[in-house]
Batch of 2 targets.
Target 1
Amino acid sequence: MTGKVQKDDFILLYLSPGKKWLVRAKEKGSLHTHVGYLQFDLVIGKTYGSQLTTSLGRVLWLLKPTIEDFVMKGERRTQVVYPKDMGLIVVKTGVSPGSTVIEIGTGSGAMTTLLANLVRPSGRVYSYEMRSEFIEIAKRNLERAGLLDFVTLNLKDAREGLDVENADAAVIDVGDPWNVISPVWRALKGGAVISAITPTANQAEKLVIEMEKTFVDVQTVEILMRGLEARFGKTRPSSRMIGHTAYLTFGRKVFQESMLAND
Amino acid sequence: MTGKVQKDDFILLYLSPGKKWLVRAKEKGSLHTHVGYLQFDLVIGKTYGSQLTTSLGRVLWLLKPTIEDFVMKGERRTQVVYPKDMGLIVVKTGVSPGSTVIEIGTGSGAMTTLLANLVRPSGRVYSYEMRSEFIEIAKRNLERAGLLDFVTLNLKDAREGLDVENADAAVIDVGDPWNVISPVWRALKGGAVISAITPTANQAEKLVIEMEKTFVDVQTVEILMRGLEARFGKTRPSSRMIGHTAYLTFGRKVFQESMLAND
Amino acid sequence: MTGKVQKDDFILLYLSPGKKWLVRAKEKGSLHTHVGYLQFDLVIGKTYGSQLTTSLGRVLWLLKPTIEDFVMKGERRTQVVYPKDMGLIVVKTGVSPGSTVIEIGTGSGAMTTLLANLVRPSGRVYSYEMRSEFIEIAKRNLERAGLLDFVTLNLKDAREGLDVENADAAVIDVGDPWNVISPVWRALKGGAVISAITPTANQAEKLVIEMEKTFVDVQTVEILMRGLEARFGKTRPSSRMIGHTAYLTFGRKVFQESMLAND
Amino acid sequence: MTGKVQKDDFILLYLSPGKKWLVRAKEKGSLHTHVGYLQFDLVIGKTYGSQLTTSLGRVLWLLKPTIEDFVMKGERRTQVVYPKDMGLIVVKTGVSPGSTVIEIGTGSGAMTTLLANLVRPSGRVYSYEMRSEFIEIAKRNLERAGLLDFVTLNLKDAREGLDVENADAAVIDVGDPWNVISPVWRALKGGAVISAITPTANQAEKLVIEMEKTFVDVQTVEILMRGLEARFGKTRPSSRMIGHTAYLTFGRKVFQESMLAND
């Protein structure tokens, strides 16, 4: 890697924490923003981290998109999982190079993108989604992030069973997670970690009751993130914050005595 | 992988969310707990996820340790970074297979273990630590998790400069992070993400002022995690929680105009 | 008021934020603590705010108990409402001098004590409790705080109806608040504010559904309090905090059209 | 009190939790809203809690304003203290009927209004403000709430000393609270509770250092309030919340040995 922008690279143009553009560096054309436009031919060959100037004289910083940028700035029609929540899921499930991961509820493919980036090149994400339009959106988002090769997208109702065996971990993000606990359980290795994302307390309650039948170490948590505005002599927490995204429930697959009679 | 315990595997014996043992499955000997002892020879050959019974008739679940288990149950003499914080660092820095990562402040090697697990097999963690006793602890913890091959441990004061170039990301966990911003900046690729962990608001303030000279998208946040006790008809948040671990500061390396005169 | 301790005054002896004693200044006897004992005859006549020295040479500060001290350091057999929650209840219900206040669930009388202190001398708290042993505890706690004269304690099941009319506000702290909404509604003035304390999300849900039939501006919130350890150059939030006490639900009594046919 | 609206009463017209109007019930005229207008002559004589209908057929509920309504819906040019914070201040300072309370930083008089309502009729709030335009706003707000008689508004720099003695409590809401600690201390009774409101961690730090010289039980906290959207089978915390208003610092006045030589 040269550290310089090549034709067709995805680049991130940074104006401020709240204003960033994730675009493809084409040979022609330009990016139009409220602080002026920027011609793409000026970008190709530039070093990542350098500064660019718009037609109105404003500085944009040329950055290489991180996986978080791809995850958060993809095309989407559903609420995506937040980085604060994704992070804990990654640490607790242990998803890493070589992992076989099940995802129930592809949605726009945000979580899928993050997972695929972590399991590559030898692992794989098997993602299930019932709505074909979401499969298409997820496909485009994964392609853009260069990660489609590490994902199998299944247009299928997970409640009817999965086509995976011995998976290392599962991430569930559907409205009725309790209905897929059984097929997901069957697709996992013994001891594998499952995680599920539910917005309401009622869902978490129903889910935990179902999970406690075949999983141990079942825990539900919520993650709150608050900004700190660190400024000389005036440091204070941010005035506004996200109050709630979802509850996260985790558990580890176990076998009841009867299931292992011949072990 | 057979899904069965082999001699010398690390295993996790689970009694309850607050009581788990991470031990090596030896041919001889036994684990002594307050709920009875367990002979290791009964464990070898068992399927992960199955249940074991102690001498006092209590059930222990046989689990395969996740990376979180290795991270949180390693030998330690310092406060380790919490999963809630580690997770956000992983998502925001984009550490993943193949990454070259700098760590300043190895400590007991908890964060090092998590990072090494994510960059393997082709990436590498370059970790710096000034206290030799911590290098030794971290080495043992990494060895136990089978990840030492992916880490270079440096007994060196990072303020004097690093021996890395073109790194993809950096994680800083020392008391005076502002003093290593300059050497870390030099070791990173343009646009690379830096993250730093500071317990006090004063540290965060001082750090941000230093970082804003050569990084953009500088943000400080804190992560709060609260349990939800999900029980039928009685679901409520946990009575107690951790109030604070550390502030997390992130930024992306940029070049000032003058630094790139010949670009 | 002289600002000096008189015989039989309740005094607060302060050692540290976590170690305070609320005792009566008697002519004889002494307070025995882990930092030595203190003879009461040395205390009488002393100015509030002055320092005392125990037999072991440790300083105790002589303070006049605040209403919070009486509330939090009363005899108790149940969980009392926390100051963070009490405060919001006071502000939202508008309990103040002259108010007629209904309390359902006297418990140990902690909230009762706070309310009585605010409505005196012309207002009154009508408190209902089904368990006679709690009536006795509450009575002792109110007596100690000098507030029993402003409270009517009723040993009665509030679900069977109240003996109050035109009350200005109500505070409900029982396990099944939905069952007393109707009798409490009847006892309130139009527009009066009701507040209820429920530990679980399920209770809050059930309560809100019931309240929305005859109250408007129905809102449920939770209050979190976190300490800030402010120290020179080392300011940081407290490591531990209470994660949850209870949800607080508020509403204002209205009349449905049919109820006011002859208005 | 009749429970019916009288001419010139302040009334609260309630449409939804976020849309309420605090207006005076005049004999003529009307309230114009985005859901139609309402003629005031229809309101006089109506029972509080009853429903009204706008010209567009929408229901508005007729409520008696609580003290919180006066506090939050007064004329204002500054950020007012939030109910969550006011509540804790009330509980910890013990402000109640008969109290003599000092307020430094009247601002728009929101906190002043709450305090005056609690100390009446025999207590008094002595409030200091350096900017005459705020004195005028506060005066109008207090008059509207019918509480001006219980407040002395001082157009004066509190750093130059106060005209109060033996006060029971103090509330400080200025940018440099450390500069008024000494005059406030002198105006308080021994053992009296002080509270101060500071948005930044730096202010809290500086304040605590100053307070610890002449106060004990010094504690700084922050209060977070989050809504719970309680709905049948779909109960979840609110998506958005206020992340920060201010840190609250409390302490109790003590005398150092030397100050009480002749006690």
Target 2
Amino acid sequence: MTGEEGAAPRRGLSRRGLLGLAAGGGAAAVVLAGGGFALGAGQRQGAVADVVHPFFGVHQSGITTPVQEHLHFAAFDMMPRSDRDDLIELLKDWSYAASRMTAGLEVSATGAVGGPAEAPPDDTGEALGLPASALSITFGFGPTLFEDEGGDRYGIRDRRPPKLERLPAFLGDDLDPAQSGGDLCIQVCADDQQVAVHAIRNLSRIAFGRAKLRWSQLGFGKTSRTTADQQTPRNLFGFKDGTANILADDAAALDEHVWVAEEDGPTWLAGGSYLVARRIAMLIETWDRVQLGEQERIFGRDKREGAPLSGGTEQTAPKLAGLDAHSHVRLANPGSNGGTRILRRGFNYVGGNNSLGRLDAGLFFLAYQRDPAQFIDLQRRLSTDLLNEYIRHTGSGIWAIPAGAAEGGYVGQALFA
Amino acid sequence: MTGEEGAAPRRGLSRRGLLGLAAGGGAAAVVLAGGGFALGAGQRQGAVADVVHPFFGVHQSGITTPVQEHLHFAAFDMMPRSDRDDLIELLKDWSYAASRMTAGLEVSATGAVGGPAEAPPDDTGEALGLPASALSITFGFGPTLFEDEGGDRYGIRDRRPPKLERLPAFLGDDLDPAQSGGDLCIQVCADDQQVAVHAIRNLSRIAFGRAKLRWSQLGFGKTSRTTADQQTPRNLFGFKDGTANILADDAAALDEHVWVAEEDGPTWLAGGSYLVARRIAMLIETWDRVQLGEQERIFGRDKREGAPLSGGTEQTAPKLAGLDAHSHVRLANPGSNGGTRILRRGFNYVGGNNSLGRLDAGLFFLAYQRDPAQFIDLQRRLSTDLLNEYIRHTGSGIWAIPAGAAEGGYVGQALFA
């Protein structure tokens, strides 16, 4: 835990942000503010040496960051009658709190236990004593933030990236609107689920009166790697997937496939990306009854090593002509798609079971790309994927991911300049 | 990964167990059986040095075992028309698979990738390459297993422990029958959620035709410690709870409060215990608006250190007279309960959010005791707990936990002797 002094802007939460934390506590809330950025009371006890991903930087963390063990993803809608100042203030408050939590600190200087006994604590406290745990917090703006049936609520309609549109319908979509979309999104990843849950919970509190949690999703057991030294993990079908992912040290591929360039426009999004989330339910019990040879034919990889069925080892480039024409690897491989690549960092999920005793389980797919067309083209190509018999897309969303915030600034600041 | 040779009985799954794994695969399933216990194909690749809790032993693992990071708990109902032989065979199959998985192996010798291409794999494969991850698998028998509206289905009615009865109703219960009860239960704990999920999924497959998943619950961030060197973790109210838990090295307390003794009866349950599970929803947003001083008064502990408000440090015994008469610590402390103690090993859970944006979150309470009356007395005493304003009990179950299986035997064997 080093460098905390420089890790956050030297200010506190807004009056509104504190009001969210203290709502119901009455006037005492405002007294809490204090102002300034003090260490000491806010520092977690017992924090051990740990990985810290700084919040401020050229790009937001959580994209090329080595994939963590756990996910808590949340989509928010702005509250009715909120205005431009509310939105900017919320983004400032979120940035301040995120910069602290990613450094292993509480959401404010007084935190869970440093405030007056007569006020609700700023921080909910369940992460007290836990280290930063590689926490990353990544914010995004949905199409409806720029314009919805309420019109140009935040004065940013003409700044919407033309490519930031609701995704088209895909063959086999079975989307639940209540688990899709959202004006804003926050992707929280950490190596400790308690730390991830703590972040979403406290950011949700801070949003009080300005934005409301719309839907959320927990995940575990990362399904992709983003650095060469990470093993390719297995999805709930038991296969290694995402072997050909874009890795964090491949600057050229990131520039070509992930980061929005100045010339792509709009200028405020340069250095950012587009995030597509898809909740993909897996028909686990049906899959489990498929013969091993058939499972491998469907994926185009052997189950043991993850090697393409055309030969070699996991890292061998598949010879596409040697695979079933509708196998997953053949259809998803850049060689079948004019070189289209995306950066995946999805997670497995299990949400219990239904009344038939079947597991509610699947893949929460998360992909970053320079242009939403990359995902759309790939997904259309997958319309004949043999895997489709065993999966259902039940949730969906797209968000523009602004570049990283500068020290002392806030995420998305360029959008309001 | 050492000692696998001795870690499981030298036999495979029953024909029925294999049929479950292969259901839908047709006649090929039976060919799979092979028989014998072969290593090699079944061994996970890339397994690293790791904690292994042996399945066989005097007591089942998962009770005094140091609490792991993750939980997947599942309740099962026996299928209609199943008989005594089905039940015994299921327990044999489950024991065999559990003894393998806790050793870091797949559910059978051929596992995920070692079988013929023409049959569904025995193992679903998502834990291939992952170490045992401190996996523990604990089995229990509910009151309805011994007798239900179908009568004495398994010929064990007269062997029901008289104390194994459905829990009485408690003040404030808001139980969902679909998330309560069950003929059988399996508590799976592991330091890797993917490993825990893999275990429940594969045990559920093996049960095919004999038992069906009734409900299940994931959890994280253990809320109690069971060894002195574990930190007391925090619940989602941000407080350390369970400081006074019974620890694994306190043999006298375990004998007095946790293990069923010979003289308690019935004989087949000696060395076992009774497990009570309660799904306790927390009204997170309401709690978060309570003043710090009031939160501490309700718990009877300070939030920072977990010390009793009567003074000292976390480990100081509370002076009960110095606490609010309805504070949680005062009511739950053995000093208020004629010395009643239980062994707790609960987990936090978050299941998403409701349409108001409120988190579906709380505590999945798990407690082991020598006599269900211990829990019942405590829970009745907690009827005036100040905490009750912020929690709702939404799920409940009780199971007799047999002693550990002997090498080559199966869990619960004494019940059928």
